[in-house]
């Protein structure tokens, strides 16, 4: 009962702090509207939040990029009339007031792949150097059984003992002619 009363009191306080045009029912909407300042909300936004981000998959953000000033307000009033009367500079100024980047600028490469490649090559070089130093200073030399003479002796012993004659190495040995089978 006490929790329900506290919850209702907190909810009432949050609702009283909401501006009239905010998305009701979201605590995040209070903080989002504080962050956008005086910028105009012109759309729905991601999940109903008033946010700005330049993205190709979401080309129309919910908030204009810049806060309106006297120059932008004058251009917006002029925009309501005939667009042929607007100069290219005025059109660009209107566009930049609503958007930070064009689609071409968003799609342009940032060169971040070079940093990722460089870091991965540094880690690869460090791993190679660690492996070399481990071989030089940590690992012992290979045992004598790794030389060719000992390997031949071990193979001869496996054949003599007829180890795994069904599917193993000795299944490919012809014991009558003492040669490998074709």
UniProtKB/TrEMBL annotation:
It comes from the Eukaryota. It is found in: Mitochondrion inner membrane. The chain crosses the membrane at residues 117-139. SUPFAM superfamilies: Mitochondrial cytochrome c oxidase subunit IV. It is a single-pass membrane protein. GO terms for biological process: mitochondrial electron transport, cytochrome c to oxygen. Pathway: Energy metabolism; oxidative phosphorylation. Its main location: mitochondrion. Keywords: Membrane, Mitochondrion, Mitochondrion inner membrane, Oxidoreductase, Transit peptide, Transmembrane, Transmembrane helix. One of its GO terms (molecular function) is oxidoreductase activity. It holds the Pfam family COX4. CDD domains: Cyt_c_Oxidase_IV. The keyword Ubl conjugation does not apply. One of its GO terms (cellular component) is respiratory chain complex IV. InterPro entries: Cyt_c_oxidase_su4, Cyt_c_oxidase_su4_fam, Cyt_c_oxidase_su4_sf. PANTHER family: CYTOCHROME C OXIDASE SUBUNIT 4, CYTOCHROME C OXIDASE SUBUNIT IV. Belongs to the cytochrome c oxidase IV family. Component of the cytochrome c oxidase, the last enzyme in the mitochondrial electron transport chain which drives oxidative phosphorylation. Component of the cytochrome c oxidase (complex IV, CIV), a multisubunit enzyme composed of 14 subunits. This is Cytochrome c oxidase subunit 4. It comes from Drosophila guanche (Fruit fly).
